[in-house]
Amino acid sequence: MLRHDAPAVVLRRFPECAHLYAARGWKLFPTIDRVYVNELAMRSLGWRPRYDFHHVLESLRAGRDFRSALALQVGSKGYHRRTFDDGPYPVLP
Length: 93
Prior knowledge:
Blueprint: H1 2-13, H2 17-22, H3 39-45, H4 53-62, H5 69-74
């Protein structure tokens, strides 16, 4: 379903996302083409991600920036010399 109706999948798990995104004029991606599963790292290493989607939603709810200190320091790298209408990279239809 992630390839065909990603918002339905996300909203089933995180229903509050709809309101938090709408308040900012954001929309969920219509499709998600890949998911990285971190279960092995969590199970084997005891690692727990700090900056997951739950963190993003909690930050939006509290009015805080959801980005990590490293993300803020690194910023946008501008991978293309050309500017695209849809963002910092070309978006295919």
